[in-house]
């Protein structure tokens, strides 16, 4: 590689690594169905996770199944996946296993979703609009793998790829936060109210991301 090219690629790498953006009051709009459009969320996660909580807001009028949050590792494509099956039915995958949560939900309305999991007990919790679904359990003693590819807008069937149009997300996503601990009921409530407590893995107010294809940042108008 010639010197100029090398410097340009170093610069792009540095810019990519340190571009932290405050997206508060904004959403990512996925305006069309495709097998390509997506957003990669970049985070330093070099240790496996024993506990986590993930929260986000979403607004979609899709009635088919779709991915809300796709976290894959080199070993497992569904290492951590939130997949909406249909109105009122969500699947949470950990390490390729899944549990189903049934919630009371209208269609189409904006939702605030939180999912948490604790390795020691295997207990998974799912909250929709601040209300808890029945607790489930899976993958007790497991650790969620490190160095993930985290993708919004598409469901990964391989590390950073393997997208299917029929599982893509069309709609708006905002206020995404992820912690390396299980949040309490009060912490879930304050996140739902718009006051998240110090997220450690992903922070919508300080987000490192990369847009691929047709995804637009717009004001949040439905909260
Ligand atoms: C995960 O949660 C368990 C139980 O709450 C706790 O004992 C453990 O220290 C936590 N692990 C990490 C790495 O924070
Ligand atoms: Ca998959």
TrEMBL record:
Using the record's annotation, list all stretches that form the Pentraxin (PTX) domain: 24-223
Where is the protein situated, by its record's location annotation? Secreted
Could you name the domain of life of the organism this protein comes from?
Eukaryota
Q: Which InterPro entries match?
A: ConA-like_dom_sf, Pentaxin_CS, Pentraxin_domain, PTX_dom
Give yes or no: UniProt keyword Disulfide bond: yes
The entry's free-text remark on the cofactor is:
Binds 2 calcium ions per subunit.
- Any idea which UniProt keywords this protein has? Calcium, Disulfide bond, Glycoprotein, Metal-binding, Secreted, Signal
Which positions form S-S bridges?
A: 55-114
Identify which cofactors the protein needs according to its UniProt entry. Answer: Ca(2+)
N-terminal signal peptide: 1-19
Q: Which Pfam families match?
A: Pentaxin
Give yes or no: UniProt keyword Ribonucleoprotein.
no
Subunit text: Homopentamer. Pentaxin (or pentraxin) have a discoid arrangement of 5 non-covalently bound subunits. Homopentamer. Pentraxin (or pentaxin) have a discoid arrangement of 5 non-covalently bound subunits.
Family to which the UniProt record says this protein belongs: Belongs to the pentraxin family.
Which PANTHER family has this protein been placed in?
C-REACTIVE PROTEIN-RELATED, SERUM AMYLOID P-COMPONENT
Name of the protein in question: Pentraxin family member
What is the protein's species of origin?
Echinops telfairi (Lesser hedgehog tenrec)
């Amino acid at each position: 590689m010639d010197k100029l090219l090398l410097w340009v690629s170093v610069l792009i790498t540095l810019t990519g690594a340190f571009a932290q953006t405050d997206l508060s009051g904004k959403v990512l709009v996925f305006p069309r169905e495709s097998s390509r459009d997506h957003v990669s969320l970049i985070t330093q996660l070099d240790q496996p996770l024993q506990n986590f909580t993930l929260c986000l807001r979403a607004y979609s009028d899709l009635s088919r199944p779709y991915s809300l949050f796709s976290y894959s590792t080199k070993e497992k494509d569904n290492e951590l996946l939130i997949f909406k099956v249909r109105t009122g039915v969500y699947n949470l995958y950990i390490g390729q296993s899944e549990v189903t949560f049934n919630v009371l939900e209208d269609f189409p309305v904006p939702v605030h979703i939180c999912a948490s999991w604790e390795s020691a007990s295997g207990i998974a919790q799912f909250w929709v609009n601040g209300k808890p679904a029945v607790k489930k359990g899976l993958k007790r003693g497991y650790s969620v793998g490190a160095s993930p590819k985290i993708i919004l807008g598409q469901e990964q069937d391989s590390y950073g790829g393997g997208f299917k149009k029929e599982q893509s997300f069309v709609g708006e996503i905002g206020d995404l936060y992820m912690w390396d601990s299980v949040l309490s009921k009060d912490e879930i409530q304050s996140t739902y109210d718009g006051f998240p407590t110090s997220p450690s893995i992903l922070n919508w107010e300080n987000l490192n991301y990369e847009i691929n294809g047709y995804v637009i940042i717009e004001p949040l108008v439905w909260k």
